[in-house]
Fold this protein.
Amino acid sequence: MSTQVVYQRSRGLQDVETHYCPGCHHGVIHKLIAEVLVEMDLLDSAVGVSPVGCAVLAGNYFNCDFVEAAHGRAPAVATGIKRVKPEMLVFTYQGDGDLASIGAAEIVHAAMRGERFTTIFINNAIYGMTGGQMAPTTLVGQKSTTTQAGRDPLQHGQPIRMAEMLSTLDGMAYCERVCVADMGNLHRAKRAIKKAFTLQQQGVGHTFVEFLSTCPTNWGMSPVDAGKWVLSDMAKVYPLGVVKDVPKEEKA
Amino acid sequence: MTREVLIAGFGGQGVLAMGRTLTEAGLKEGYNVTWVPSYGPEMRGGTANCSVVISTEPIGSPVVAQPTELIAMNGPSLARFEPLVDAGGLVLVNSSQVENPACRADVRCYLVPCMEEAGKLGNFKVANMIMLGAYIQATNALKLDTLKEMLATVFTGPKAHLVALNIKALEVGASYVKEG
Amino acid sequence: MSMQKELWKGNEAIAEAAIRAGCQAYFGYPITPQNEIPEYMSRRMPQAGGVFVQAESEIAAINMVYGASAVGVRAMTSSSSPGISLKQEGISYLVGANLPAVIVNMMRGGPGLGTIQPGQADYFQATRSPGHGDGHMIVLAPASIQEAVDLMWDAFALADQYLTPVMVLADGMIGQMMEPISWKRDQPLPEVDKPWAADGRDGDGKTHFVTSLRLKSADNERFVQDLAQRYRQIQENEVRYEATDCENAEIIIAAFGTTARIASTAVRQLRADGVKAGLFRPITVWPYPDQALRQLVLQDSVKAVLTVEMNLGQMHEDVRLAVRGDKPTPFYGRTGGMVPEPRDIARAAQEALQEVSE
């Protein structure tokens, strides 16, 4: 009897269990990044910068070097790394609290300077690790432990669209919003990562991929429903697709 | 020997540069020297002052609290700092920019019309060098030749013609003390 | 090697010394009275083949240092008191991740925005525990530009040796003044092997993860105990101080940095007036030269130890810990940006002696 391998863990990931909840998209997104690192032969020369948030332990899961940053400071840490090691492939992996709230200044200025690293931004519209508080990206009406009657625009403001906001900066070279809620989007997401890493290697400026992601635990949904909600509700507020592509615009 | 010099005036009168030149000359002659500027917002358009200490001893405080010598390039500086000068100390006043200049009775005082003399030399920027010449003459703290030698290294290339002008300025200033 | 004396401004001399010592990256943010450091670095670092970035904040700057250090590169930042407060978070993470770095603090008078004039009121912040957690950093306190220059080599060497942040704790006076120096040390520090650096996987595929997170309390306690062990080594091996005229003195003045050099004039004045005064000047304020001070204080001749600072009595606590109540420990301080004069210190010493003789 012969066995046929139809699926296996990427070499870009360590052979360990992750702590992510069932239905959370972190694991899938990790896998896509890992596959791209393998396909581009970057495992030896890549360094990721992990956030404070659910992905704080990402350095234990990837099969490349990692540096854990203070909350929100990953773009500054990545700036320090890329400036002294320009030959390395540098990416940050940040959640919405980390990037859009406490680290807003750091990402704005890294993008302004056109820092030649890639930001992977995981937007799941909630604070996952601390137990479901409102994020700056929480949708209007969405319930969280600090917006128990739903996010009220008068009280809490309205969702912040980081990809669009950062794309106004001249240092931003490539910016795309993706998700992994179905197969078509998953393939597009992987292509976006590969494109961002390739453009980073070409030194064209800052590259940014925003993922709409899930948090079934804190959303109070099943994994399947959470994936559907990304497409039905989140994508309405945060449209999927390329927000900015300077190299392509220049070619056209 | 320790000389504690306070140099004060308007920003733009070359007060800090005068202090630095004096400090550099002190170093050239082998003394211990320090220079401390007033710094920050008060420099912007207002008064500027600096403390220079020239000593045969190691220098403790670089801040001049009771100057042995005061160079006042304008009226407000004279009014503010003259009361601090040691009895028997020296006060040099830029009389071009002080109305009715007058000094305490217990200090040695020279009035030097720096601006008028600089005007005669055709360049108001050398007013501070005129004052420096007067200071050297009045104190014998350093040799005038040391400053002259320094000028030759500061002004080179297209600025070389300024050497003679600045040396002349030093001498004009020194003559005020001789005649004083 | 040139031993000729050159006139340098403190901030610029420190920046140049850092580059000559082998610093490869500088990240900073403007704040008076240390602006000449980033200005000088912006000009000289690229010439020296290094990296300069003007960060968007002090917080970003210290985290850029964290990033550069995490991949094995000698890096530094500088600031002044309010900016150093902002860097505390980053310093704690450097401690937690075992990362070497050098931080220059040109202290000014606080609290809050305070003033831009010199101060020493960051002593507690520097010597007790930088940021949160059970950490320390080595803190070097120069009293002259020459000493600040020389200590830059030591700062980077100690940071690499003990895998710790090192602070050079000076003040606006040292940053702004000019003084002759000579370049006693002209060679950069040797490269140090950093097998932990996250600068790419090892040949055998081994990865590096630079982090300060240890979720299991037992692991974290073990880490902090390891730190403590390293701190004991530092306390045993790296204490530095200067004691002048302290033998058989009747009064010892304890002061650091700018205040110590001002106090040295007071000591000369007191000696001229027939008072046997001495000066004890810690160069490392952490680790504090506790034993050295204690031994000098226990001499029969010593009647009192006068602490003088540009704050309301911060190093005074370390002096009292060293003296342990065995001798009187009076205090004289100016604060908020005011600089003491030698005659004020001499008067305070006279008064202290009078008090103990009554």
Observations:
- The interface with chain A takes residues 24-25, 27, 51, 53, 55-57, 59-61, 63-71, 73, 75, 89-90, 93, 97, 198-201, 205, 207-213 of chain C (CB under 8 Å).
- The radius of gyration of chain C is 21 Å.
- The first helix of chain C runs from residue 10 to 21.
- Chain C has a mean pLDDT of 97.
